[in-house]
Amino acid sequence: MPNRYLIANWKMNVPPEGVASFLDAMNGADVVVAPPYVYLKDVAAKFVNTGAQNCADQKSGAFTGEISADMLRDCGARFVIVGHSERRTIYGEDDALIARKLAMAIDAGLTPVLCIGENEQQRERGHAVSFCSDQICAAAVPQLSNANEVIVAYEPIWAIGTGRNATGAMVAEIVEAIRGALERFWPAELATRTPILYGGSVTPDNVDDLIEHGRIDGFLVGGASLDSKKFLALAEAMKRLPRQP
Ligand code: PGA
Questions:
Q1: How far is the CA of 205 from the CAs of 138, 159, 230, in angstroms?
Q2: What is the 81 CA–ligand 1 centroid distance (Å)?
Q3: Contact, 186 vs 140, CB < 8 A?
Q4: What are 220's strand-pairing partners?
Q5: By alpha-carbon position, which residue is closest to atom 6 of ligand 1?
Q6: pLDDT 10s digits, 98-121
Q7: Alpha-carbon gap, residue 33 to 38, rounded angstroms
Q8: In this structure, which residue's CA is closest to atom 3 in ligand 1?
């Protein structure tokens, strides 16, 4: 049975109320917070469930400006997001690079949060299912056999930061395809307990349809995770997630 997760992806932002008061407001809620690197230790000091937003695809060496998965673990991170669409589109990260980052994260003992999802054109052309399945296939690194857990976040690019979330029915269709691809390409024992999250303009106002119909195990949240009240409302909503069969 997959675990459930609500993950805050702050991107290159901090909550307007400040890191410390945001964390205080969480008051032990069962959430993961992924701040910019430089706040990892602050978050980890108060919070077991700390995540990073990216990691290097190499273990160590002459890679100016990069941060390795081992270093993230040393700073208290337990999770790391890899393959976020902003990394893929703005910084040109391709499937091969992301596969190496995934392998590094697993080797470092971190739980990777692998982001996948189609763009608007791919959806309009009816290619969303095959595109997402291919991304799962491209992430099938040998290290998966040693992973305790890998989280998949379905984040359609057209829904991220746009205020246009996917509907529960749209998400359910892709989740089914992702489950099929996980079964085909990933080690069976890992695939059956891989949590699948949805991300893309999730707010307390649109979460109910996603919870009821999305067949998901939680959410990766950007904008609404910068507001402790909204994020706490999402943590509350998580309690209504049905058990997936
Ligand atoms: P959003 O971002 O909730 O602001 O759409 C989600 C994400 O990029 O992870």
A1: 34, 15, 9
A2: 12
A3: yes
A4: 7, 199
A5: 222
A6: 999 999 999 999 999 999 999 999
A7: 13
A8: 222
Note if 155 is an active site residue: yes
Q: At residue 201, what is the residue type?
A: S
Pocket test for ligand 1, best of 5, 81, 155 (most atoms within 8 A of CB): 155
Q: Are 112 and 82 in contact (CB under 8 A)?
A: yes
- Rounded distance from Cα 102 to ligand 1 centre (Å): 20
Catalytic residue among 86, 155, 189, 212: 155
Segment 26-65, tens digit of pLDDT: 988 999 999 999 999 999 998 889 999 999 999 999 999 9
Q: Extract the tokens encoding 20.
A: 């410390």
127 classed as catalytic: no
CATH topology of domain 5-238: TIM Barrel (3.20.20)
